[in-house]
Structure formats: C-alpha cells, structure tokens
Automatic annotation (TrEMBL):
Occurrences of domain EF-hand (ranges): 40-75
PROSITE patterns: EF_HAND_1, EF_HAND_2
Lineage: Bacteria, Pseudomonadati, Planctomycetota, Planctomycetia, Pirellulales
Matches recorded under Gene3D superfamilies: EF-hand
Source organism, top-level taxon: Bacteria
GO molecular function terms attached to this record: calcium ion binding
Name of the protein in its database record: EF hand
Sequence segments annotated as region (Disordered): 187-208
Amino acid sequence: MQFVASWRYAVPTVVVIGLSACCTVGCGGRSPVSQLRDGTPGEAAARVMKSYDANGDGKVAADELTASPGLLEGLSRIDSNKDGAIDLEEMTARFGKHDEQSNIIAFQLNVAANGAPLDGAVVTFTPDPAALGEGKQAYSGTSVAGGVALTGSELSMPGLPAGYYTVQVSQPAQSIDFKRGVEIGDDVPSPNRVTIDVSGKKSPAGRK
C-alpha cells in the first residue's frame, strides 16, 4: 500500500508495511523560528521546574508530570542519575542535546486499534508549553485509509521541532479519546517512527 502524505505540501511517496494508519511527517529542513523552543536550554529548564515542581524540592518526579505526558514519556532520558526525578541540571542537559539535533525531525506516525488501521481518527500533537514555550502551534490531521496529513493552521513545515508533545487520538465512532506523551528527537528509540496503539483505550463515555 502506498500513499502521499503532506504537511501543507507533498512529500515523497512511502511504502506502508503492517496494519496501521500512517502519516509521513517530514523529509528534513528547518522549521519556522516561532515554532522552535523558546529560550536557551537553561531558560527552558527553569520554565519546566517552575511549572511542574509542585512541592518545591528542586526536582520533578513522575507523579508531578501528570499534566505533561510528553515530559513523563521522556523522563528516563532526562533523568541521567536515575533517581526517578528531573532536576534543573538534567533538564538543561537534555535541552542542550535537542539543540545538537536537527531543527525538525521527520517521522512516520502509525495509529492502530486491535491490529487494524484506525481510520477517521483526529490525531493532534500539542507542544508542551513549559518545555517549548507558550503559544506554540498544535498540529492535527485525520486518519484515512491512505494515512494522515498533519497541518498547522498557518504553518508550512516538513516535520516537528525536537521537544515534548501530548498526542491525542480521538475517534467518536469507536468512543476513543486517548492521550499519550511523546518526545520528538534524533536520539530517541525509533526516532523516525511514532507508533500509537489505542486498542482498548475507550473514552469513559464509551465504556460499558
């Protein structure tokens, strides 16, 4: 099966292997400056600590990241001393790693439910406001038999900036409303593929 997906313009045709709805996001290049992370690594890290260090102990533990699925998903890569929490130094270092990577990351998005492509689902990537800065554009698209085209309403981008995102998959016909976090980067596991399996992830209204 082949399809052409686009981010406000056509990108190369890709071969889709397996049972999943797919989106090819990007083929390299640079993103608009407004969508890149605001501030230096240290400034961005300070925003994260201010936003999520609820008890003021100078660390952000997993239970303080319920409002940031993206950072929670990336916790193991940020937490260099493996104490189960993020501190200012670790967060600064991780943002520094992002700055060494491509400005935008191309990847293929796979969305599946019960081993089959999830058609008719709205897929939205929302940048974490503390990690990337306030006012960043969210990106969304609807899955169809051929795949998903993600767009930012006034953007022309071949990929996503490195950083932390909440991904929401909504499919009302199957009562699916699912969120998870993702870190976009060159050095994450399978950096050119994001897989979301929503099997059994019914919204509360859809549960029996």
